Amino acid sequence: MKKYAVKVSWSLDFVIGTYLPRRLQEKSSRQGSEVLDTSLCLGSGRSIKAACNLNGEILLEYEREALVCEILIPRIFKDLLILGQPNHFRTIAHAQSLFTVKDILQGLAKKLLLAIEQSKMGKKTSYKRLKGSQSLRQRLVLSTLASTPVLIDDIRADDTMPGLRPHEISLLRLLERICDDCVVEINETGTELEYKPGIVMGGRNLVHDCGVSRSIGYFLEPLILVGLFAKKPISIRLRGITNDPKDPSVDTFRSTTLPLLKRFGVPSEGLELKIESRGSPPDGGGEVILTVPIVDRLTAVRWLDEGMVKRIRGVSFSTRVSSQFENSMIHAARGIFNRLLPDVHIFTDHRAGPQAGKSPGYGISLVAETTSGGFISVDTAVSYAQGEVDEIEYDEKRELMPPDNVGEQIASCLLEEIAKGGVVDSTHQGLLFLLCALSEPDVSKVRVGKLSPYGIETLRNIFDFLDIRFDIMPDPSTGTVILRCVGCGYKNLSRKLS
Fold it and tell me: Where does this one sit in the cell (predicted)?
């Protein structure tokens, strides 16, 4: 502080007199060397090092060979001899403490926790910025699996009813239910969403009300994908609409989606969808129980053989209407299939009473099984509801369509899906691509028909979140498309080890 003309400061000067320890004197006399020059710079490690100053006594280290205690008042030098002292050593001073080791560790732990909290408060979370409401369901799933916080703005900002819809908010609540430390923030208008994913915990005996804005099928795909990589297997009861014309029905998930998962190494044990009761729009009242096992990782697939259709299965349902509606749909559909294939069985599922839900309706779900193990499915539903709920709009002609026409139409839709080619139908393209991208770091190769808009959007989202790019190779001879990718090797780090 002298250079700043400050006379009084926290710095004190000590002058060490000329003193040569007895040990070095003996060494000097034996070697006939000169006396050690004590004017060398202190603390340099070459001659004299001041180790510590305590209560007017200075501990000095000479040439890393001798220890001397200098008492300042009066000036006295004492040679320190330690039993077993080596010829050369290094002196490190430690201040004495009245605290136990346990107290020190607890103090350090408190300081560490405080530093973490301050870091969280001071450091802002880095969000991936997205716009619009398209593919919101897939974005939330990929954000959860990739542990990437997202900030989505401009959600239907120009619509008459801007912001998130009730079914999208319900999906966010579902993710909060099965995840730990998940943070969801929505602005007042609902046009901006901040989603910070947490750890997927899973659990049993969970219950979630999906509402009546969309059917249960809207929630099943994200729930299955996230549930496969949970800490514990998921068993959840979902309430709402089981069949509607907009989303895949619960029958399609049971007959087509679950077998598709098994091809990627998902075990059959613990993978089940049980329909407790049916529910049609607008009031729902349906109930299903979904159980999803956990996996360590998914296996890659090479699935190019479409195969030939060997049989057709299906199920028709009716709630709060005559069972004759089902017979009419089945008869109309079999009138088309029986001319092409002998093995056709469509089962009936007539519900009455509490198992029929709260609204009348009827529908049918069909699936074609191929010789290569593929499943091509279609489904439809007709509701007598005259009122409309939120954004679900049902064409009046479609609602009043006779059962015979429903059967003929659904049979024609299945034949169109089969004619497109591919190992899955257009509805399951997105799920197939996601499973390939999440599989082990090996080449997955699949064949699909014409790429659907949903499938194309899925490929974009996969590249944005997982940085996985698919090679797309059209096959002009069959009119199909072959897609190839190397999986990201996603591993279930939350899995509970036994």
Answer: Nucleus, Nucleolus
| Distance, CA of 470 to chain centre | 21
**Residue pLDDT, tens place only, 417-467:** 999 999 999 999 999 999 999 999 999 999 999 999 999 999 999 999 999
Give dist(CA 432, CA 449) in Å, integer: 12
CA distance readout (Å), 233 to 226, 262, 456, 489: 11, 16, 31, 21
Ordered structural domains, the chain, with CATH: 2-80 (no CATH), 101-196 (3.65.10.20), 201-419 (3.30.360.20), 426-486 (no CATH)
| Radius of gyration of the CA atoms of the chain, in A | 37
Long-range contacts of 27-36 (CB under 8 A, 24+ apart): 27/65, 36/62, 36/63
Phi first, then psi: give them for residue 51, nearest 5 degrees: -80, -45
- In single-letter form, the type of residue at position 438 comes to L
E strand or H helix at 172, and its extent?
Answer: helix 166-178
- Whether pTM > 0.70 for this model: the answer is yes
- Residues β-bridged to residue 445: 302, 484
The predicted-structure confidence for 195-221, as pLDDT tens digits, reads as follows 999 999 999 999 999 999 999 999 999
Reported residue count of the chain is: 498
